[in-house]
Dienelactone hydrolase family protein (Micromonospora vulcania), 225 residues
Amino acid sequence: MDEQRSTVIIPVGDAPLPADLMLPGQTVGVVLFAHGSGSSRHSPRNVAVAETLNRRGLGTVLVDLLTPTEDEVDAQTAELRFDIGLLASRLAGVVDWLAAERPAGDVPIGLFGASTGAAAALVAAASRADRVAAVVSRGGRPDLAGAALAQVRTPTLLLVGGLDEEVITLNEQALAELGEVGELRIVPGATHLFEEPGTLDQVADQAGAWFTTHLTVPVHPARRS
């Protein structure tokens, strides 16, 4: 079967969320992306990571967790993009949609979060432990996940740039909360956005290996009402 690319609207509560789906011919798992504040599903960094995952046979879903109307308002107020509870709830809703609609088939689901999106991914993983099989954070703010960190039971990889000293400290603290399910890796010579040559490639390769390792056993969850 050939690869499938599509843009869909995913209904989460009363919020219609636009998302770009890419499903390889033989999809072994699907990874849902949560971008950071001020970004969108068109983030060139997340798109680049998604393309690497696709080459490994992983489907990808790049979604905007705010509706176009909300995003337009938020461009002025910058409030919703930092509402981790709202973003995590939306992300969990997309996980439920993937589990129910199965556009990629009966395959495991992973979450890839960048910056504040990583906090939303961890909160969503804690609330959907039966459906989320792996998490990767890129330059993330896992500290913003709050009490949910200690409730995460999903294998979680924290990737941080070696020059991003403040975020390294925050991730080290988060790692202590995650316990044995967490692993922290430093990408040498990288700043927060991994703009230095070759650093984003390292993120993509390590994320791909993590998801390939952990997205191996299909989950058969009961539908949530």
Observations:
- The chain has one domain: 4-214.
